[in-house]
């Protein structure tokens, strides 16, 4: 399988994938930081498209405050293993996030 690097446009963000919170498993939830949500015009509960080697729609929610303790807390998206599998990525890969109109 060929892995291609996602290309960003003005209405999208390229974010690094981290594992989902335990409480989000199996719920099609993507968690991103507040600044990223604002830049895409997102509110909690909005639908986003996550693209890599496929595309999937998930509900966007803000990340928990505990993520501020990790290095470079901005620029990441937390999604579960089922979502990652559907778009062909693993933890550490990058994906494109867009607001679903």
Task: Describe the model.
The chain is mainly β. The protein contains 2 helices and 6 strands. It has helices spanning 34-39, 81-87, and strands spanning 12-19, 29-32, 47-51, 55-62, 76-79, 94-99. A 6-stranded mixed barrel has the order 1-5-2-4-3-6. Strand 3 and strand 4 (55-62) form a beta hairpin.
Keywords:
13% helix; mainly beta; globular; 2 helices; 101 residues; Barwin-like endoglucanases; 6-stranded mixed barrel
Furnish the topology, listing elements before pairings:
Blueprint: E1 12-19, E2 29-32, H1 34-39, E3 47-51, E4 55-62, E5 76-79, H2 81-87, E6 94-99
Parallel strand pairs: 1-5, 2-4
Antiparallel strand pairs: 1-6, 2-5, 3-4, 3-6
Strand order in the largest sheet: 1-5-2-4-3-6
How would a textbook summarize the main sheet?
6 strands, mixed, barrel
Any guess at the CATH architecture? Beta Barrel
Helix run count: 2
Q: DSSP strand (E) fraction?
A: 25-35%
Radius of gyration: 12 Å
Mean of the pLDDT scores? 88
At the fold tier of CATH, the topology name is: Barwin-like endoglucanases
Order of helices and strands: EEHEEEHE
Class based on secondary structure composition and strand pairing: mainly beta
Number of strands: 6
Q: What coarse outline follows from CA principal-axis ratios? A: globular
What distance lies between the first and last C-alpha atoms, to the nearest angstrom?
30 Å
